């Protein structure tokens, strides 16, 4: 039953996000329609001006804001950590512009590299189009280019072609090595990615065994300082990355791991 439920969830995601068919939203629309028609009739009875019909059928039962999303928590937490650290130069790789990057740009300048173009000029954001799996895109940048670096919910896509990058089964390894090169000794690297039973869900994303990320980071001179885990329900847990805890995370189906590494001097 559990596997059947997971299959339904993935089917619902594919229909809604990739084909524009959202069965659950369609059902809720039909459920909400009678109330909308009743409210419209009542309003018309006491209003004589022009009315344009623009149904908003879902807002009545929605929460005031989404605070259970893993994106909400990672963006907020890492932005707060960067504010407290106040680094000399912060560079971001591929995180959401309308989330984390905007958070940071509200209180300091942030440089952003992404494989996709951004045409808008945004105050506080210095943008460069670059593929971090290709060292030629950052070859002109000296080693130790920045003392603070972030890559939130992005490395799991490297090498899968989803965002126009080249197909490369080792894309995440190349990307992490190139990012580590940009970080100065003593600098801090904030990295978030799905963790759990290791697999590739082509071409959406990878899910990593957390030890895969830690080993790859250590091979590039990075030392794990902290690990925060965010569940699907929005529960935030700061963890001691013991062998037992890492094994437990690797056996789970899915969580978001927010790793904080420092560059060894």
Task: Give a quick set of tags describing it.
265 residues, two-stranded antiparallel ribbon, 8-stranded mixed beta sheet, Rossmann fold, alpha/beta, 2 domains, 10 strands
What shape does the CA trace take? Answer: globular
Q: Structural class, from secondary structure content?
A: alpha/beta
Kindly give the count of domains: 2
Main sheet strand line-up: 3-2-1-4-5-10-8-9
User: How would you characterize the largest beta sheet?
Assistant: 8 strands, mixed
Q: What is the N-to-C succession of helices and strands?
A: HHHEHEEEHEEEHEEHE
| Percentage beta strand | 15-25%
CATH class of the largest domain: Alpha Beta
Q: Based on the structure given, which CATH architecture of the largest domain is correct? A: 3-Layer(aba) Sandwich
* CATH homologous superfamily classification of the largest domain: Vaccinia Virus protein VP39
Low-confidence stretches: none
Radius of gyration: 22 Å
**What is the residue-averaged pLDDT?**
93
Q: Which percent bin holds the helix content? A: 25-40%
What's the total count of β strands? 10
- The name of the CATH topology of the largest domain is Rossmann fold
Instruction: Please give the count of helices.
Output: 7
